[in-house]
Amino acid sequence: MAGIPWHLEALGLPAHADGVAVRRSYAARLRQIDVAAHPEAFQQLRRAYEAARTWCDEHPATDEDPIVAAEPADVPVAPLAAPPADTAAEDALRRLTDAVASAGVDAIPALFDTALASLRNGYVDAPGQFEDLLVDALRNGVIAERPSLFDVADAAFHWHEVGRLRTADPRQLWIDRVLAQRETWRSYDAGWRETWLEVLARASRGLDPWVVRRWPDIGRLGETLPDWIMLYLTPVQLHAWAEAFHALPKDTRDEFTARAAPVLVARPGSKRITRWRPRIRAALFLLWAVCTVVSIVMHAGDPRSGGGPSEPLPRFNQRADTPRECMALYARFEAPDPFKDIPADEVVQLKRRAQRCALDGHWQAPPPP
Can you tell me the distance from the alpha carbon of 172 to that of 199, in angstroms, rounded to the nearest whole number? Predict the structure, then answer.
């Protein structure tokens, strides 16, 4: 078949084949390929088909060209002659992976758009290949900023639209689970979500003693939102965290398990509301809040004592003190009898601010005048 373009040769067609013959040959050969088992053969066939269609549009058949019969359905599939494999999708993902590793969250949308734009002049299947590769990277935890990337990809590929996902595809099943778990996460209390996100961010940088003791909250989230939470931490990181917590003394484990978020906060309630349920929820939450405050008042001392700050309360969108304000608060704690004639609730808030300053690294004496 000398002189025949590679794409027509791959489809078993002569040089004078028309568009009808191309479509028939493609359909016949496609029926003989197990796409799931042999994706490379399918991609080669698809590239040959697209190239053949373009060639036929540019070289319309003449009256002198003989009619080409349809390819028999039982023709054995031979190795397809193809040009070098297209790596545009792989290259785009590699560039995106390198870029997000050193970029902030705010840069993610622009970096993602740049990656997609690089595929517009490539093969017609390149964006779909990029989508699959990105999902694999998100699932396997091999790319940074996964929560932000998932949200951006959701908007770009319309994952959230009804009927968009192919339920038979394992990747799409994973996307569907993450979408559902993301909605559950958004139904949780905003203050607790802020606290948990800070714990997860700190855990992603390493398991220091402060982080290890916060496992009960994250372990509960992992049971309820297993796919969603792995956008933040890999299974290896979660396992190491759980092992480190269970290695703590039993008294410590019991204490921090008791301090974890109450079930009513961590798990959204049923949509079926009765007249007595809101009252029970309010009473249980009030009881938990009172016990927490009493525990902190009894055990919280000078934030510099005991090897570090005492337990912080959930912040619930409380503004953080500036470094200058933290130093002023430090000087107040240094004064003799700093809590004299101060109401108990104000003492709690002062200690809470001191704990926040210590966690933020601003708990230090003001510079000498």
Answer: 29
Cα(first)–Cα(last) distance of the chain, in Å? Answer: 92
Same domain, 159 and 220: no
Contact present, 133 and 90 (Cβ < 8 Å): yes
- Integer Cα distance of 78 and 10 in angstroms: 9
CA 225 to chain CA mean position, Å:
12
Which structural domain, as residue segments, surrounds residue 40? 6-58
Cβ neighbors of 111 (< 8 A, separation 6 or more) are 96, 99, 100, 103
Please, what are the averages of pLDDT over each run of 10 residues along the chain (369 residues)?
Answer: 72 78 75 70 79 77 49 50 66 91 88 88 77 92 92 90 65 92 90 90 93 92 92 93 94 88 53 46 66 62 44 54 85 83 83 77 75
110 & 196 share domain: no
Q: In the numeric block, which tokens belong to residue 101?
A: 């590793």
